[in-house]
Design brief:
Radius of gyration: 22 Å
Strand content: 15-25%
Shape: globular
Number of helices: 12
Length: 372
């Protein structure tokens, strides 16, 4: 029988008690809120019937929360609950409490692994150098690290210094390119509407084709998510135009205390415009004005993509911190679910490698204009 663990005194749990509007309001009370814990993100990526949320209260007040994507076989208790960048446990205006983190993990394991017999797989928004006690707590609460998976790296840019210091702290070449962009007579258009998103998708597809990389996220899903997000949580879309034509674009999200870059693109004709530099700087300036404290540049890999690593590292400059995420973790009590998820992992890994090979092959093919 699965082993449930009691919560501490004063702690209680609620399952699936909120509607979408209330959840979105609650989300804004956490410093570690992100687009990956919005109702539309989970509804679009998993389906509205395949989602579940948990609230952890202490003495009646919500202290932690998490939205899960549920993937299971029909009419069977076999499958997994996926949670990305949760539990939310850093309430705005309060100090992070490791006890809350512990009991949030315990509540999630009790519900999804023990009660529903699913594999609970989650990716907490915790960095290695930030909360050293979190890894110990995870192990003590029955979570095992997926050591075979990359833990992921990113650069966090500290936005608390004055805007002039942020610019001065950039790499010398990055500052020079930014100055050139500012002198190029570029126009920046920004907003949240679908027409802007549609325009960005066109430029993004050019970037994917030119670079030949496998898209880490489905851009069309994010377009659907944007349509369902409330106005105050919508992604920020920024387009840079040169001579009236879009030369670069940026899609970002800002929640809690952090802004994060989601998608970036440069048109085939806009490689020399330096529009990508101008858009990042405009986003930094906007984050400062809106009192966000951190800019998450969202992923680096110096070995596989040294150019992007250099670009992001020089943008953050002296105010950047190269960090690793704590990683992905599993908790399970159902053997059938575990075997099913392991089979699915193996299939996805092989499918992902096949997509990379296909993309690499396409990138090596000469373009029609080059072949003529």
């Amino acid at each position: 029988m699965p082993k449930f663990h009691k919560l501490g005194p004063g702690y209680t749990v609620e399952i699936d008690t909120l509607n979408q509007q209330t959840w979105c309001q609650l989300l804004q009370e956490f410093d570690d809120a992100s687009i990956y814990q919005t109702w539309p993100y989970v509804a679009v990526t998993a389906g509205p019937r395949n989602m579940s949320h948990l609230l952890l209260r202490k003495n009646g007040d919500v202290v932690a929360a998490a939205l899960a994507r549920i993937a299971k076989l029909p009419f069977a208790r076999i499958g997994a609950a996926y949670i990305r960048w949760a539990p939310l446990w850093r309430r705005r205006g309060t100090d992070a409490d490791s006890e809350v983190f512990r009991y949030a993990l315990r509540a999630l394991r009790n519900e999804f692994a023990c009660n529903r017999r699913l594999v609970l797989r989650f990716f907490p928004l915790v960095f290695e150098d930030e909360s050293p006690s979190c890894r110990t707590i995870l192990a003590e609460e029955g979570f095992s690290s997926l050591e075979d998976e990359s833990r992921g790296r990113t650069i966090l840019m500290d936005l608390t210094p004055p805007i002039g210091d942020l610019r001065e702290g950039m790499g010398r070449n990055w500052r020079r390119n930014l100055k050139q962009a500012e002198q190029n007579g570029l126009e920046v258009v920004e907003g949240t509407d679908d027409e802007l998103f549609k325009t960005f998708v066109g430029v993004y597809k050019q970037t994917v084709l030119r670079k030949g990389f496998v898209e880490p996220n489905d851009i069309n899903q994010f377009r659907l998510i944007q349509a369902q997000l409330p106005d105050n949580l919508k992604m920020k879309i920024m387009l840079c135009k040169s001579a009236g034509e879009v030369c670069a674009g940026l899609v970002s999200s800002a929640m809690g205390k952090t802004g994060i870059e989601l998608f970036a693109a440069t048109s085939d004709a806009g490689m020399q415009s330096r529009g990508s530099h101008l858009l990042r700087w405009k986003f930094v300036d906007w984050l400062k004005q809106e009192h966000f404290a951190v800019y998450n540049l969202n992923g680096i890999n110096p070995d596989r993509n040294p150019g992007t690593y250099k670009f992001k590292s020089d943008l953050a400059g002296k105010n950047g911190r190269d960090v690793r995420y704590l990683g992905r973790f599993d908790a399970r009590d159902g053997l059938l679910s575990y075997c099913c998820v392991k089979w699915g992992d193996a299939f996805r890994m092989r499918y992902g490698k096949l997509k990379e090979l296909v993309k690499a092959g396409r990138a090596l093919k000469p373009r029609p204009e080059a072949a003529s």
